[in-house]
Backbone:
């Protein structure tokens, strides 16, 4: 279900943390995404990993279009325009990638879909912005300079909106450092939706962990 681009961007920023998740089993995906939504994270990044990921994504989007229309499904690990087009046709409302691809940016702009490519230098960030990117994915966040990199970029480029993935943990010290540096949101995968919680099918535990993280970010922002 197509959404307004600005509303999607606003929802991502307001939420503060984007759960990053993939599983080959559609039912597990539905349960985890519902748990995230119940915890206050309705914007979800489903990573394009493994065989038949696009088919799983389509079924998940079909489910939530009826059961929980407030869920905003995005797709991650997108490296080329044909794959982006496939997932957009299957219901993606935002697209995330590990690197910048101008063809993906053009496609997303034509469809008014937010695109967050992975960037690791000021030049890559500037090139992404020239292609219409509003929120830049800093990737891999912990390896390209962490919060200090964010501060360094925002000095000469204060209009930049950065969303790191990798190196952000759901604890106060980590989130305080990143949001204190000036990020607008962050992506979290296994640090948020842990292997132990998944193996136990502890969806209530996932919901609680997500809720705690969303509320912690709100407290940090309010300081």
Residues:
């Amino acid at each position: 279900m197509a959404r307004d681009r600005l509303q999607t961007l606003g929802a991502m920023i307001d939420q503060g943390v984007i759960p990053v998740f993939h599983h080959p089993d559609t039912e597990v995906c539905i349960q985890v995404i519902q748990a995230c939504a119940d915890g206050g994270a309705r914007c979800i990044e489903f990573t394009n990993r493994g065989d038949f990921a696009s088919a799983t994504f389509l079924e998940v989007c079909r489910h939530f279009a009826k059961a929980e229309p407030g869920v905003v499904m995005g797709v991650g690990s997108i490296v080329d325009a044909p794959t982006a087009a496939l997932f957009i046709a299957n219901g993606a409302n935002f697209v995330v990638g590990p690197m910048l691809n101008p063809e993906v940016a053009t496609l997303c702009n034509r469809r008014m879909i937010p695109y967050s490519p992975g960037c690791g230098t000021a030049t890559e960030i500037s090139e992404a912005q020239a292609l219409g990117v509003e929120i830049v994915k800093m990737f891999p966040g912990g390896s390209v300079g962490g919060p200090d990199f964010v501060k360094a970029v925002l000095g000469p480029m204060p209009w930049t909106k950065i969303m790191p993935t990798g190196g952000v943990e759901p604890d106060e010290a980590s989130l305080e450092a990143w949001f204190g540096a000036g990020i607008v949101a962050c992506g979290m995968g296994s640090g948020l939706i842990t292997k132990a919680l998944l193996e136990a099918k502890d969806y209530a535990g996932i919901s609680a962990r997500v809720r705690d993280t969303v509320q912690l970010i709100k407290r940090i922002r309010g300081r």
